[in-house]
């Protein structure tokens, strides 16, 4: 048995559908649809509980998130300094809602928001609050920010959690902003001074300096403290509320955002039975497809048997920088639903989110229902399944921290996004793989993609080298492996032997993705027919637009260079737009055995400039790397995001139709159908395709099987289709 077969069989054997064992599983494995009415201080006098119970039923939710305490308490707490909601007037609104939800058979998650308080609290416990270097407290509007290293987190909040458990027995807890001050703000309170001294034997860092050992120790110490808070809260809720009473801080699907908040997503997922995502709507730069990607990223850490519900805004949330939220205005339903469908395709559980319990814009009440009812009808196919992908896109939070530093959006997010966008455009299934999990997960992959993953530890590089030794392919770009796990430059790429190329400068790739310049790449004529699909589609051109700059680098013998660099030349006026140096030997793409290395950061360029040639080149390279191991082929017009899964003896294919009139500017107000799509899918061992059926259209799809591939047509897709093959 090959390792691959072994993995496939192991996966098939371990899978049970939710319906099979629902009765034996705790709530965090079975509550697949969630709802949240995020209570405002005004709501205690106008919360129509019977109406909301009806809404819970209409949307078929199985769990609710109910505001309990923290910044504002919605119950009569015995802690006088926990500020009561202004209009609470002694009412136990939280307790009434928890009882109603329990009576309706829903899981109840009590919501905390624990990072700031009103002024009276600050006056009473000044030493529990975060301080600037001047000694002034950190403030957020009229509130005061509490310090994660103070007794507020060690003693006070655990006591509040116990009080809530004693009063209403929630099934678990959520916390909205649990991780304290973000990375940009150093706390100089007396607790931090003392604890950091005990930990590091040093004074707190004076200011941000990524090259300073004390600052680095401070970063790591901060991460550690958030995990301690996570563990303390879980010990507290489990000991007071039973083993299944788990505490879950909210997390983001963006690693850059997690880094800013000292939330180590890999460590958090390793200790989580369920992950709550706060990731409410698309941005115009990342699109709906980013939610499918977020699902793959978190399930790569959590495992695919656990749940990751995500708060999804039904109100007007911003989709571009500088735009504001309209908390009380309904988002166009097609826009809100498309975000939900992308999340579901990526393995995320839907969770509707209204701000406030009373709305004069009642249109939002009709948005969740169709998606949630469809989800209920088919939920056994939407959980407990394994992605089928032969490509792993490598990422790590340390790379975001120490390679990305203050430019993670450009150095880390941009190349990752460019690479995955190119895969999505080309309808190539992939999953995200953490750099620490390469050895664990490598068996399923034919190729690993390393989009400018500058910071890699020696151990991570060893696992990549082992992967290639066993026959795997690589596509690496830019600065990959030039820096160690602290972001310090190595003398050369740690993977130089695989690349067949050597770094031209110690800071190569760190400034690569700046403003685009008028440069090009030249195709090497002699290699056109020797490099398989790499230059496919470029038969009628000798050059491609680039946008970056490159320096010469030393190559090992035997490498092939299908693309070289053409240095920048003027754009304006047109009379000057001619190449000063039409040809150089500076390599832009290096092929070495089964390894493709792109000194030209085409992934970042595509993320930034959206040039079709860049997407084509990346897709070509992935086809070259994967060879005949591509498990899916979808033909026909449209921008379709494809997610392929295996569940026992069947395949499940999500096709999300992202071709819409608002692709260029949110929101979508009208879906536009596409089709037919011609689908070919490779049948893994143990899957015998007898039929195909659409879970959205309800239609059976005539299917033929040839040489281990199933072929069928999807006639038309409006928003999405999910095809069962088996
Ligand atoms: Zn502090």
Descriptive overview:
By secondary structure, this protein is α/β, with parallel strands linked by helices. Helix content is 31%, strand content 20%. The chain is built from 21 helices and 32 strands. Helix 12 (289-302) runs parallel beside helix 13 (333-345) and helix 16 (408-425) crosses helix 21 (612-626). The longest helix is centred in the N-terminal third of the chain and has 29 residues, at 213-241. It binds zinc ion. Zinc ion binds at residues 130, 147, 149, 187, 189, 191-192.
Counting H and I runs of at least 4 residues, what is the number of helices?
A: 21
Ligand list: zinc ion
Q: What number is the mean pLDDT?
A: 94
Based on helices, strands and strand pairing, what is the structural class? alpha/beta
- What is the C-alpha radius of gyration, as a whole number of Å? 27 Å
Question: Which bin fits the share of residues in helices?
Answer: 25-40%
Strand arrangement across the biggest beta sheet: 16-15-17-18-23-22-21-19-20
Q: In angstroms, what separates the terminal alpha carbons? A: 24 Å
Shape: globular
Strand content: 15-25%
Total beta strands: 32
- Report the biggest beta sheet as strand number plus sense, adding barrel if it closes: 9 strands, mixed
Low-confidence runs: 1-21
